[in-house]
Amino acid sequence: MPSRKFADGEVVMGRWPGSVLYYEVQVTSYDNVAHLYTVKYKDGTELALKESDIRSQSSFKHRKSQSSSSSPSRRSSSRSRSRSRSPGRPARGRRRSASQSREHKDDKKKTIQETSLALPVLVLFKLSENNTRRYNGEPESTEKNDTSCIILEQKLKPDLEVKHVLEQYSLRSRKDDKKKEEIYSEKKTFVAVKPIEKVPTKTKELEFGGRIGTFTLIFLLPATVFYLLLMCKQDDPSLLNFPPLPALESLWEGRVFGVFLLWFFLQAVFYLLPIGKVVEGLPLSNGRKLPYRINGIYAFILTAAAVGILLYFQFELHYLYDHFMQFAVSAAAFSLALSIYVYVRSLKAPEEELAPGGNSGYFIYDFFTGHELNPRIGSFDLKYFCELRPGLIGWVIINLAMLLAEMKIHNLSVPSLSMILVNSFQLLYVVDALWNEEAILTTMDITHDGFGFMLAFGDLVWVPFVYSLQAFYLVGHPTTITWPIAAAITVLNCVGYYIFRSANSQKNNFRRNPADPQLANLKFIPTATGKGLLVTGWWGFVRHPNYLGDIIMALAWSLPCGFNHILPYFYVIYFICLLVHREARDEHHCKQKYGLAWERYCQRVPYRIFPYIY
């Protein structure tokens, strides 16, 4: 095993990924397996660099000029010239002042050389700064940064003018110039190395309670789903009234599993249809961008047409309600099989395709969080497909089935007002997600989390069977609400939706086209990554305004169920816990990614989700 070259705590020069620029960094740790150094930049950003991308500070010290070592012939000629002074040459008594003048000139040349070295740094700083601002949609300068640069330019301008004159009337020999060109060529060759290749390191910080926590969640999540569904079937769904366990043979039916498979592969066919635009996702660790077809809204329209045809031919859609538990078991079994498949295939995946959060080397942890970031079968992206299609669209179909079941069981000509509100609110949420499908490409699920049991079970089981809990509850526990109460709940949902959608649109538009004139009024904090942190609009109100809107809508979905039992409020309670945990994950990742810029942002926007509370 090769020994490490740089020690922990040593200050060295590290290259910024994807560029030829070196910055002063401090070595914090070394990975003996991947042979990578973890270094910390002055702004707090931490990156993993290879040893070939790190240089000692002595390598960047300026070379001393060798022009002072003149040949003996030049020294003798200078002595012969000194004997025959011209009439205008000063006397011997003034030669000391002349030498002082030459020393002053040498100092001036030295200053000019230092100035010439500082100028490219200034130019690179300005270019990087302007590129950052163009990315974020603001002018190419701010008052603070421009003032400092103008002062520096004014200081350098006289020296540059003197340098230009000296170069124009230089008396150095061509041999010295040739040496200087060789030195410059060596420096240029030294700097212009090939771009850094990012090699993913092992996941050191384990989330969700580590190996023990993820092992527990693999069993706890399915048990929670089955418990909630059994509770809703009871006449008294109070927490202290534990439901009786059903017979195992009643939980499985081959026909139900076949219907679920038909639903899954039908959505896969809709996904593969050559309709809708194709966009690129965010750059991966190797710089590659994956293509994604945006046709979720078309899949929803085709699904709605298919369901309409089934209803026209009097297909009993409340079959879903009658076999709801069996559908949940079928979905759980399929998600488990899918999780095993993607984990086994991830063992042969290249290192650069592994998920940054699921490469710990522990089987249970990587199986739960997802070992491979973007598992694909050809152009079919499994994670992206499951994120929105079968579970999210299935949620709407389940709600519709509960509405028809309520009408049939209670002999209603029209559904109850509570059921209409729940179906309408959640339908709006799903259609909004499919209409803005492209926005999901920047979420943590796509960019950071691998595709494992957590996302497979969450997308295929948790979303359709837990998020539809209010509609399932109302079938067995009808609740009557008045029109004024319904109007107040509708206003609450509209407020939550407005905050949720406007905050997400503001963020997505800023990321997609920062130069949009409509975003010119937005202010941001620039970061070392070239991206900006919004500090105005909704993102200057709280750090996660979209989470705030989500929680308000979740409350509006539960209120039509009344206050007789806490069961229909499980969703809003769970959702608050989920978003607080996700906010903590975001906080940790952003602090590592943006460093001091994130600390400045937190000082500017102190509240995380709930203003003046949290």
Automatic annotation (TrEMBL):
<feature type="transmembrane region" description="Helical">
    <location>
        <begin position="250"/>
        <end position="273"/>
    </location>
</feature>
<dbReference type="GO" id="GO:0003677">
    <property type="term" value="F:DNA binding"/>
</dbReference>
<keyword id="KW-0443">Lipid metabolism</keyword>
<keyword id="KW-1133">Transmembrane helix</keyword>
<dbReference type="Pfam" id="PF01222">
    <property type="entry name" value="ERG4_ERG24"/>
</dbReference>
<keyword id="KW-0963">Cytoplasm</keyword>
<keyword id="KW-0256">Endoplasmic reticulum</keyword>
<keyword id="KW-0560">Oxidoreductase</keyword>
<dbReference type="GO" id="GO:0006695">
    <property type="term" value="P:cholesterol biosynthetic process"/>
</dbReference>
<dbReference type="InterPro" id="IPR001171">
    <property type="entry name" value="ERG24_DHCR-like"/>
</dbReference>
<dbReference type="GO" id="GO:0050613">
    <property type="term" value="F:Delta14-sterol reductase activity"/>
</dbReference>
<dbReference type="Pfam" id="PF09465">
    <property type="entry name" value="LBR_tudor"/>
</dbReference>
<dbReference type="GO" id="GO:0005637">
    <property type="term" value="C:nuclear inner membrane"/>
</dbReference>
<feature type="transmembrane region" description="Helical">
    <location>
        <begin position="325"/>
        <end position="344"/>
    </location>
</feature>
<feature type="compositionally biased region" description="Basic residues">
    <location>
        <begin position="76"/>
        <end position="97"/>
    </location>
</feature>
<feature type="transmembrane region" description="Helical">
    <location>
        <begin position="294"/>
        <end position="313"/>
    </location>
</feature>
<dbReference type="InterPro" id="IPR019023">
    <property type="entry name" value="Lamin-B_rcpt_of_tudor"/>
</dbReference>
<keyword id="KW-0153">Cholesterol metabolism</keyword>
<feature type="transmembrane region" description="Helical">
    <location>
        <begin position="212"/>
        <end position="230"/>
    </location>
</feature>
<protein>
    <recommendedName>
        <fullName>Delta(14)-sterol reductase LBR</fullName>
        <ecNumber>1.3.1.70</ecNumber>
    </recommendedName>
</protein>
<feature type="transmembrane region" description="Helical">
    <location>
        <begin position="562"/>
        <end position="581"/>
    </location>
</feature>
<dbReference type="InterPro" id="IPR018083">
    <property type="entry name" value="Sterol_reductase_CS"/>
</dbReference>
<keyword id="KW-0756">Sterol biosynthesis</keyword>
<feature type="transmembrane region" description="Helical">
    <location>
        <begin position="481"/>
        <end position="500"/>
    </location>
</feature>
<comment type="pathway">
    <text>Steroid biosynthesis; cholesterol biosynthesis.</text>
</comment>
<feature type="transmembrane region" description="Helical">
    <location>
        <begin position="521"/>
        <end position="542"/>
    </location>
</feature>
<keyword id="KW-0238">DNA-binding</keyword>
<feature type="domain" description="Tudor">
    <location>
        <begin position="4"/>
        <end position="62"/>
    </location>
</feature>
<keyword id="KW-0752">Steroid biosynthesis</keyword>
<keyword id="KW-0152">Cholesterol biosynthesis</keyword>
<keyword id="KW-0812">Transmembrane</keyword>
<keyword id="KW-0675">Receptor</keyword>
<feature type="transmembrane region" description="Helical">
    <location>
        <begin position="455"/>
        <end position="475"/>
    </location>
</feature>
<keyword id="KW-1207">Sterol metabolism</keyword>
<comment type="similarity">
    <text>Belongs to the ERG4/ERG24 family.</text>
</comment>
<dbReference type="InterPro" id="IPR002999">
    <property type="entry name" value="Tudor"/>
</dbReference>
<feature type="compositionally biased region" description="Basic and acidic residues">
    <location>
        <begin position="101"/>
        <end position="112"/>
    </location>
</feature>
<feature type="region of interest" description="Disordered">
    <location>
        <begin position="53"/>
        <end position="112"/>
    </location>
</feature>
<dbReference type="GO" id="GO:0005789">
    <property type="term" value="C:endoplasmic reticulum membrane"/>
</dbReference>
<feature type="compositionally biased region" description="Low complexity">
    <location>
        <begin position="66"/>
        <end position="75"/>
    </location>
</feature>
<keyword id="KW-0444">Lipid biosynthesis</keyword>
<keyword id="KW-0597">Phosphoprotein</keyword>
